[in-house]
Amino acid sequence: MSAHTSAHERHHTPEDHGSHGNHAGHGQGQGHTHGHTATDADWETLATHLETSAELHLPAYRDTAARLRALLGPGHPVRRVLDIGSGPGVMTGVFAETFPHAEAVAVDATPALLEHALARAERLGLTGGRVSVRQARLPQDLAALAGESGPGPADLIWSSKAVHHVGDQQGALDALAGLLRPGGMLAVAEGGLPMRYLPRDIGLGRPGLQARLDAAQEERFQGMRAGLPDSVRVREDWPAMLGRAGLTGVGSFTSLLDLPAPLPGPGRAFLHSQLTRLRGAMTDQLDADDLATLDVLTDPEAAEGILRRPDVFLLSAVTVFTGTRPAR
């Protein structure tokens, strides 16, 4: 999701978004381009891809928001929610609906994605200050969020697939925890399982295509991590990391999205976009047989393509880790 974003991500280029597991909807950008230049057209295309992914994950997003509301409990009023790495603001809107008395703030480094967040809020009728946006990078600009020019401390901070795009992940969690009011909760979606959408043997090429795509994406992800400024290797034990950030009551839960075959059109369109992006990004990592298989899967006219074949499904599991700032 962002628990999306799918989709959803930050410190990425439009080319490498979504390269680690599903992260659909959780995709939101912090504008770090790793030596590439992202054009307005790139971000517009990415925003559409992220929003489509997030729409598919809305049932899981709403379940996640409801579970966070229950964890906070009725005795803790929620006045402000920060969606760090918000992208086009799908989860921001879910929080505004879940916490009707709170201001939901979409925080992202990419203006084009924040424009989508505002437009989406208006379409949903979330006006009158219910949803606002703030341009900021993680973690450089977090201090400003707590100052006079920022939205101030939050009762709930959500960050989906953003922290792993920061060189010092523990430092990013420390900074996010510092934005919480006493009793406030930090929720990070940084776990789960890679998205599945095809059988192991699809009748094309060698069986096990998705396993090889997973391996190639993991290699790209490792390269991304190694190339980040001030990259620090850390054991990704997220509950322990939240504890080191000074949070208590650390726990986790997993939300499942299960859309069986035959997958409806919107899901197929998202997967077609996802596979097209992977095909363009992995020319040097996959062999000719797998590339030829991807060519068939992304062919909109092919009977065995992702848009037409009857065995396409969508299965995604995202784990959310939570911790609470101790009351004074």
Structural features, described:
With 328 residues, the chain is an alpha/beta fold. It has a single domain (5-324), classed as Rossmann fold (3-Layer(aba) Sandwich), CATH 3.40.50.150. It contains 10 helices and 9 strands. The protein has a 7-stranded mixed sheet. The protein has a two-stranded antiparallel sheet with strand order 1-2. Strand 4, helix 4 and strand 5 form a beta-alpha-beta unit. The relative contact order is 0.16.
Largest sheet: 7 strands, mixed
- Summarize model confidence as the mean pLDDT: 86
Q: How many separate structural domains?
A: 1
- Spatial extent as radius of gyration: 19 Å
Q: Ranges with pLDDT <50 over ≥5 residues?
A: 1-37
- The count of strands amounts to 9
The top-level CATH class is Alpha Beta
Summarize the structure.
The chain has helices at residues 40-56, 58-72, 90-98, 111-123, 142-146, 169-177, 209-227, 238-244, 265-281, 288-297; strands spanning 5-6, 24-26, 80-84, 103-108, 131-135, 154-160, 180-196, 248-259, 314-324.
Sequence-ordered SSE layout with sheet pairings:
Elements: E1 5-6, E2 24-26, H1 40-56, H2 58-72, E3 80-84, H3 90-98, E4 103-108, H4 111-123, E5 131-135, H5 142-146, E6 154-160, H6 169-177, E7 180-196, H7 209-227, H8 238-244, E8 248-259, H9 265-281, H10 288-297, E9 314-324
Parallel strand pairs: 3-4, 3-6, 4-5, 6-7
Antiparallel strand pairs: 1-2, 7-9, 8-9
Helix pairs in contact: 1-9, 2-3, 9-10
